[in-house]
Specification:
Blueprint lengths: L2 E4 L3 H13 L3 E7 L6 H5 L2 E6 L10 H10 L4 E3 L9 H9 L3 E2 L4 H8 L1 H10 L15 H11 L3 E5 L8 E4 L5 H16 L4 E5 L5 E9 L5 E13 L2 E7 L6 H17 L4 E9 L5 E7 L6 H8 L3 H9 L16 E8 L1 E2 L5 E2 L2 E2 L2 E3 L6 E5 L6 E2 L6 E9 L2 H14 L1 E3 L5 H9 L1 H5 L6 H11 L3
Parallel strand pairs: 1-2, 1-4, 2-3, 4-5
Antiparallel strand pairs: 6-7, 6-8, 9-10, 9-12, 10-11, 11-14, 12-13, 14-21, 15-16, 17-20, 18-22, 19-21
Helix pairs in contact: 4-5, 12-13
């Protein structure tokens, strides 16, 4: 392998390009017309336009991406995050063209990407899941009868959903039909399938992830836990590793469960198993993401590993030299996602041109950015500008370093959510672990914005 095409944009494209350069690999960036002058296109070895601003005509256009890969002799394609990263048809297109796909195979994607089928796989293998449907359930009468048996609240999810989309929580039985139909409609529009499934909605749960790498030679390693409960409308804002306030016996069970799931699925490459953790420390499988995650840097900081490098090495059929006993965490890391949005205006997006950008630095501070001074933030895509990742010997040290880094961050020209992130970090509930996935909306909103 000597040339990698990055089928993505923004911060994650920058991240992959940097690892490619470290490994002596040429990088090809693809971009839409809206991203013509984007930062990642400037640092890649080559950059090629693949279509108009709308994602379906550019970043989701498999034919256009494959054409560029063939013309420019790309040996491999890294799909990044979002867009085509969990699209099995894209993986198959790479395979048919003799191009290495830096990720899992299509069978694993299909097995785990259909969340209803993945749920059934867990049930068949004695992996704990919340009460709910056995796989997908698309008949309304059948779904309503099941919801009534489970008891409200229930959660309706798109089988092929992702990124926090295609999810609705139903508290009132009278509203079940309208919400059920809405999720099916959203699922069809966003994910191309109206298939859904239903689960008991577990209240006041934490969102805990386990990072795994599998080399395809029968070896699966885990790289500990991540806490991802700081969410707004199912979108993560602050993540940390390792997940705090978990009994070590429970943490070990979750890690081993994640390894077992990867083994059951005959998984290869990087993946993330996501769990719900209840207040009484019972955990349940939620889903597995068959790609690298936005929050992967906190794991890298704590374990001293380049996960993108690991993905590339696995794609090249390398076998692990390390065993699980060789992998140890050191300290604590926190990541804050900085978005172009205004929290005081109901998190209204704030696209526009960055007039100036002053980034934080210092020992243990990392900034992964997709933008630089004078760059334009497009209204067509995700609003994330950058991620601030801080590592400390203790969690308190990581919190303090993160607050300082956010205070040093200064971006002019667009609104950003850095002050809101600091509010989270400084809150007593966050410091003591008295949080859950709805904490921001149910507790912090009322305190910050004086809403009842």
């Amino acid at each position: 392998m000597n040339t990698v095409l990055i089928a993505n944009r923004g911060e994650i494209a920058v991240r992959i390009i940097r690892t490619c350069k470290k490994l002596g690999l040429n990088s090809i960036a693809v971009y839409s017309e809206a991203d013509k002058d984007a930062y990642y296109t400037r640092i890649a070895d080559q950059a090629v336009c693949i279509g108009p601003a709308k994602a379906e005509k550019s970043y989701l256009n498999i034919d256009a991406i494959m054409t560029v890969a063939k013309v420019y002799n790309a040996c491999a394609i890294h799909p990044g995050i979002g867009f085509l990263s969990e699209n099995s048809d894209f993986q198959r297109a790479c395979e048919e063209s003799g191009i290495i796909f830096i990720g899992p195979d299509a069978l694993s994607m299909d097995l785990l990407g259909d969340k209803a089928h993945a749920r059934q796989l867990m049930i068949d293998n004695d992996i704990p899941v919340p009460m709910g449907s056995d796989g997908e359930i698309n008949d309304y009468d059948e779904a309503k009868a099941l919801a009534d048996r489970i008891g409200y609240p229930v959660i309706i999810k798109a089988s092929h959903g992702g990124g926090g989309g295609g999810i609705r929580i139903v508290h009132d039985p009278e509203k079940f039909k309208s919400e059920f139909m809405l999720v099916k409609k959203e699922a069809l529009a966003s994910f191309g399938s109206e298939s859904v499934y239903i689960e008991q909605y577990l209240q006041k749960t934490r969102h805990i992830e386990v990072q795994i790498l599998a080399d395809g030679h029968g070896n699966v390693l885990h790289f500990g836990t991540r806490e991802c409960s700081m969410q707004r409308k199912n979108q993560k804002l602050v993540e940390e590793a390792p997940a705090p306030f978990i009994p070590e016996s429970i943490r070990h069970e979750m890690e081993m469960c994640a390894v077992k799931i990867a083994e059951i699925a005959k998984y290869k490459n990087a993946g993330t198993v996501e769990f719900l953790l209840t207040e009484d420390n019972k955990f349940y499988f939620m889903e597995m993401n068959t790609r690298i995650q936005v929050e992967h840097p906190v794991t890298e900081a704590v374990y001293g590993i380049d996960l993108i490098k690991g993905q590339i090495q696995i794609a090249l059929n390398h076998k692990f030299a390390l065993e699980q006993k060789d992998i140890n965490a050191s300290g604590h890391a926190i990541e804050c996602r900085i978005n172009a949005e205004n929290p005081e205006k109901n998190f209204a997006p704030s696209p526009g041109r960055i007039k100036s950008m002053q980034l934080p630095g210092g020992f243990g501070v990392r900034v992964d950015s997709g933008y630089a001074d004078k760059d334009k933030i497009s209204p067509f895509y995700d609003s994330m500008i950058l991620k601030v990742i801080c590592h400390g010997q203790t969690r308190d040290e990581a919190i303090a370093a993160s607050c300082q880094a956010l205070s040093e961050l200064d971006i002019q020209g667009v609104d950003i959510n850095s002050d809101f992130a600091k509010t989270i970090l400084k809150h007593e509930d966050f410091k003591t672990g008295n949080v859950h996935t709805k904490w921001i909306e149910q507790v912090l909103y009322a305190q910050v914005f004086k809403k009842a």
